[in-house]
Amino acid sequence: MITGIRHIGLVVSDLDKALNFWCDVLGFQIQRKMEESGPHLDAMMGLENVQVTTAKLSDQNGNLLELLHFKSHPDKPIWGGTPYSTGLTHIALTVQNLDQTVQKLNQAGVTFPGEIQKSPDGTVKVIYSKGPEGILLELVEVVDTMNSSRNDKEGYIDVVYDEFKKPFTSYPQKLTSYLVRRFDILDSGKFCIR
After folding, report:
1. Nearest to 139 by CA among 175, 105, 88
2. Going by C-beta distance under 8 Å and a sequence separation of 6 or more, which residues neighbour residue 4?
3. CB count in 10 Å sphere of residue 129
4. What is the pTM assigned to this prediction?
5. pLDDT tens digits for 55-66?
6. In Å, what is the CA distance from 135 to each residue of 85, 116, 117?
7. Distance CA 54, CA 33 (A)
8. Helix, strand, or coil (residue 66)
9. In what side-by-side order are the strands of the sheet with 180-185?
10. Which terminus of the chain, N or C, has fewer Cβ atoms within 10 Å?
11. Is the dihedral of CA 164, 68, 40, 36 positive or negative?
């Protein structure tokens, strides 16, 4: 069975430009950069004579993004997908301060199709943008982890499954990053997912 998401792979046409965006602008760190080729790679990908430079990047929580720059099999320079395209459409990133992040991205030449929006329940601020090669990014800031609109006898808490945002001392299991779920904290101290 699956124990977790290992990394997300993103093919880039300009590795230096992509590293500048992901590391210098967004704050990822390079963990490893390699020139890769060989029969094992050809067999795994079902291609011939693969030559690719890979860069594994991590965020502050250890989540990995792998940038791949193919020297042997170039593709079009821009991803042509939309938010409603079939398949992978976007990467969602949790940020500490969305207004500051948007300002920094604007200074780096990144454009946004709209303004920052607040979710109807008031728990997050969110905006879409495009990164290098046209990949869609969803930037999310959690602004209110406690939803005060519920007033029944059970306590509850909205939790972002990011290791840096722990509203209680330990999780009942390893949780997946970037998802928001509602847990009800029952009188017994157990968690009930709604």
Report:
1. 105
2. 174, 176
3. 19
4. 0.67
5. 999 999 999 999
6. 12, 18, 20
7. 6
8. strand
9. 155-160, 180-185, 191-193
10. N
11. negative
pLDDT over threshold 80, residue 151: no
Residue written as tokens 């949780």? 175
Which helix H or strand E contains 136, and what residues bound it?
A: strand 136-142
Task: Return d(Cα 2, Cα 71) in angstroms, integer.
Answer: 32
Q: Which two tokens stand for residue 85?
A: 């395209």
Convert the pLDDT of each residue in 105-116 to its tens digit. Answer: 999 999 898 899
How far CA 37 is from CA of 33, 34, 44, 117, 128, in Å, comes to 13, 10, 11, 44, 35
Give the integer Cα–Cα distance in Å for 126 and 190.
31
CB–CB of 161/179 below 8 Å? yes
Beta bridge partners of 183: 157, 193
- 22-55 burial: b if 16+ Cβ within 10 Å, else e: beebbebeeeeeeeeeeeeeeeeeeeeebebbbb
End-to-end CA distance of the chain: 24
Distances 10 to 19, 55, 126, 176 between C-alpha atoms, Å: 12, 10, 22, 20
